[in-house]
Task: structure prediction
Amino acid sequence: MSIAITTQFICFTVLSLVVIIGALGVVLLESIVYSAFLLGGVFMSVAGLYLLLNASFVAAAQVLVYVGAVNVLIIFAIMLVNKKEDLKPINDIKSRRVISTSICLTLLSLLIRVDLTNVWSLSTPQNSIGEESTIRIGEHLFSDYLLPFEVASVLLLMAMIGAIVLARRDVMSKDISTGLPVDQELIEKSSEPLLTNKN
Amino acid sequence: MEYGLDLEYSFNEFLKGFGLSSEIAHIIWLPLPMLLVLVAAVVGVLVTVWLERKISAAAQQRIGPEYAGALGVLQPIADGLKLLVKEDIIPAKADGILFTAGPILVLVPVILSWLIVPFGQNLLISNVGIGIFLWIALSSIQPIGLLMSGYASNNKYSLLGGLRAAAQSISYEIPLALSVLAIVLMTNSLSTVDIVNQQSGAGILSWNIWRQPVGFIVFWICALAECERLPFDLPEAEEELVAGYQTEYAGMKFALFYLGSYINLILSALLVSILYLGGWGFPIPVELIAKFLNLPINAPFIQVFTASIGIVMTVLKAYLLVFIAILLRWTTPRVRIDQLLDLGWKFLLPISLANLLITAGLKLAFPQFFGG
Result:
């Protein structure tokens, strides 16, 4: 085995172990903050796996989007509502665990079956395009994948508008979850309420 | 344009002369540029700390450090030694693991970003194709480290500082990336080497600052905000938050934050000089001077000379920007948090978007000036 292949093998083993153990930790750990940070580690390792596959642009995009945006926002949200309260004990926790474990195992067996039955080797040997992949991704985004790309942007816009409506308490007079009148004093308000006093 | 020193190639050939295989030679070569860049970054920090002390003293009509070495040049080393031998304290109710991991997560991405900083045609660790995008991606990891240390300190000021740092970093990343995008549009490449080469045509006249004046200012403001320098040092605003996320840190862990913020400042200054001020280019193209003096551009002596000029020019431009940053720090008041977010989202973001659009239009209209 040459040095390059050995290095690649060691990197692959370490990254896969980090992904698997980290993902188990995200699900099994009691502390939600640890889970969130471990999720960041899992995302980073997935980016490392992309790097091993010569997809440097996808790896950098993975870091930028998943670690830099998604994970930061998850942690941000956890810390903003960082209540020090114990979760209510659930009565039938054991049966729930059995059900969820069996569902997960079923999915896992499905994946293993796909892995075993699918023919992974390519019929024609393809050279890795390496650095050129950035250009190819751009071409695809603006030709045959244009519609999914634009639809995704519409989805993000909808999510953004929803977040703004939820965050601006002067839009709604009632709290969505509790139904109580919203405490309007807590948050900086605009001088003119938008919808509540229309008349 | 394949010219300039290729130290890696020469080094590998040299080792092969001893009968080593090319793989072994490559492995021996690999740590050298990394070590060199790490040393360069730390020395750069020492110089910047000294400059900061001296310039702030001058701005406030004091003398500044005076006795540690000539003009106090050894003062930063004394600071570093002090932090090195201080006791490493972890507060009793802090979260030990996250408390230790936070500063590391802040420092490592910043040092990794030096991968793409070129000091000459081949004088960089790795000319990766995604170049400047790698820096944007890596710099987005930093807020996680800040949130982590803010949370783990178990202190309300630290938590607020960490939250502020993350909010600030997320909001200023977008205009930053958009102004970089305008440069990439003109270069047709993400690679930092290509970005500098594209500006090397006519010396100082072809630098990107003349074609991207708005982008330059937006990028510089955002870079300062990303480095949490005053006027944007809200995460550690001492009047409001004691010291933000670093409140509970002492000794070497604090030193990691300190190093991280100064390395980040130098890195930002280097990237501004690469993106907008022609990188390693001399104001008058070196090739023109060589032709004028009838010197062969490919002679080894000239190659070494131009490479040194390149390094000196890059560092000189970067330190000019560091000087401006220090002056700004000691002459401007801090903005409020709402002013900071307003500036980021309502002013810089639309302006950088418009800048990108106009650049794209100009590129279509005048392809010879704005990159075809």
Notes: Chain A touches chain B through 28 residues (CB under 8 Å).
